[in-house]
Amino acid sequence: MPFIDHRSVIPLYYQLAQILREQIRTTELPAGQLLPSERELMNTYDLSRNTVRQALDLLAREGLIVREHGHGTYVSNLSNSFHYMMDTFYENRDLLKRAGYTPTVKQISSQRLIPPEVVRQALRLEPQVETLCHTMIFFADDRPAMYTQDFLPLALAGEYDLSLEGEGFMRYLDRASGVRVEYVLVDISPVEAAGEVAHAFSCPVGKPLLLMKETFLDGAQNRAVCFSLNYFNQEVLNFRLLTRRG
Amino acid sequence: MPFIDHRSVIPLYYQLAQILREQIRTTELPAGQLLPSERELMNTYDLSRNTVRQALDLLAREGLIVREHGHGTYVSNLSNSFHYMMDTFYENRDLLKRAGYTPTVKQISSQRLIPPEVVRQALRLEPQVETLCHTMIFFADDRPAMYTQDFLPLALAGEYDLSLEGEGFMRYLDRASGVRVEYVLVDISPVEAAGEVAHAFSCPVGKPLLLMKETFLDGAQNRAVCFSLNYFNQEVLNFRLLTRRG
DNA sequence: GAGTGGTCTAGACCACTTC
DNA sequence: AAGTGGTCTAGACCACTCG
Which of A181, B159, B203, B222 is the most core-located residue (most Cβ within 10 A)? Predict the structure, then answer.
């Protein structure tokens, strides 16, 4: 297996990617393990550095490996637990802008509370530990589009002011947490509208809504910085993906 | 604007990508327009071919441009209409495998009918034109995970046999349509379980479900080859995305 | 056959991390 | 200072499309 056929019609970078994928799958390269450096892979498989990088680019885009400048490349921790990998994550505000709307934000509340179980697990908090909970509504051209609750560990409990147009939420997290948010894990599920959300969207209780549970992760995919619940108003905003063939 | 600062700290490939992005945004490069060839861009901006390709790779991954081997690179038709771009699309069967299940498929029915409006629009069919409709259920370790309806234009009405383990749906489409499916447009929405779907999942009518409407497109994103409705059973399968920061 | 994008090489310098 | 990944160049050959 760990062989590259230099005369094959299969591109060399693809063969290398396949070899590494296989080693990750069989945990010959376990999660967290440092890969050989690019120059080592060059020599081992008799490839140029660009070709090695092309292979690693592929795996990085698939979320299988994580690169760290000046340090090395290692196997991702999430390698087998997700279904899809997206290229870019957008802030809620940017999402609305891209959809052609003018976004505005209304802050509903900001309080300390013991978070729901799902939040506790995502942030790996001890039971009964409080978090800060920001609740707000994003409007698209004055129609309510998203109902959002952000749960921040108290260590990050800064004075995040959403009325600040300039700074996005992720840049705020960078600053407050001291960790750069690089990935966002998104769980998409359908729920029934209820309580405050139904009220915010002026829709009947029980109407199906899209709920996106977002976990903000650092570059190593190890540390969860923040957790967020986002309810989408389907009347205003569709959730659409363009995917490329695998 | 259309200038590259070779002494800037901003990478050259990123500057070029930004220039092209801007030209696409302002429709100076309108949808469908051929871009200058890579060698032309090389000369125009005084960059090496690899650097030009790095910029184009970025835009292609964002879905802004489409490349055609031997022909050229042009501005995508969908450039502004989607929210997210994913790297890879998986067949339903592969999706279940990746989630760690053993997939099986049960064909429910296969009939000619006049499709719902949403299908007609996606496939750009005239009113009253019939399509073939395959209905099936995908099981994950014998639990019903997805309820799927594929709508195929009659021209593609082959004898697609899902029991064939070897061939996936997209490869079938390639063969039957004579067009290689390169992109899948996915619309995600929450709906209430009803009728056959509720029955298949043994869940109460009215329970929120995830519905994914998939449109299969060729490489030019011009031709819709097939349309598919996929209902997800949340009890079995979560829909999860790992996204990278933009 | 001319032009295109796809792949590949051998080299180079840089910024970053670690020791 | 040594090693890492990030960027960049100049050149090459290939497979593909089109006239």
Answer: A181
For chain B, which domains are there? Answer: 12-75 (1.10.10.10), 92-232 (3.40.1410.10)
The C-alpha of A60 sits at a distance from chain B's nearest C-alpha, in angstroms, of 10
Residue nearest to nucleotide D9 (CA to C1'): B48
User: Which residue is closest to D10 in terms of CA–C1' distance?
Assistant: B48
Structure tokens at B189: 């929405």
Q: Which CA distances in Å does B26 have to A29, B21, B157? A: 46, 9, 41
Nearest to A187 among B88, B186, B240 (CB): B240
Across A72-95, average pLDDT: 73
User: Which residue reads 């990085």 in tokens?
Assistant: A60
Nucleotide closest to residue B48 (CA–C1'):
D9
Instruction: List bases in chain D with any atom under 7 Å of a protein Cβ.
Output: 3-12, 15-18
For each successive 10 residues of chain B (246 residues), what is the average pLDDT?
Answer: 82 93 89 92 94 93 86 78 65 78 87 92 88 91 92 72 60 75 86 94 93 84 84 85 71
Interface with chain B: mutation pick from A24, A56, A83, highest number of B CBs within 10 Å: A83
CA of A67 to C1' of D3 (A): 15
Task: Please give the pLDDT value at position B145.
Answer: 92
Tell me the C-alpha to C-alpha distance, in Å, between residue A238 and each of A74, A96, A136, A209, B226.
36, 10, 19, 11, 21
Give backbone dihedrals phi and psi of B24, rounded to 5 degrees, phi first.
Answer: -75, -40
How far is it, in rounded angstroms, from Cα A73 to Cα A2? 19
Size of interface A-B (CB pairs under 8 A): 183
pLDDT tens, residue by residue, B136-177: 999 988 899 999 999 988 876 555 555 444 567 777 777 777
Q: What own/partner pairs with CB < 8 Å and gap ≥ 24 does B121-127 have? A: B122/B213, B122/B215, B122/B224, B122/B227, B123/B151, B123/B153, B123/B215, B123/B224, B123/B226, B123/B227, B124/B224, B125/B153
Residue B101, SS3?
A: coil
Chain C bases near protein Cβ (<7 Å): 3-12, 15-18
Total-model pTM: 0.80
Residue B145's closest CA among B105, B109, B108? B105
How high is the pLDDT of residue A220? Answer: 66
Q: What is the mean pLDDT of residues A117-121?
A: 92
Rounded distance, CA B57 to CA B49, Å?
12
What tens digit of pLDDT does each residue of A28-83 get? 998 889 999 999 999 999 999 999 999 999 998 887 888 888 999 999 876 445 55
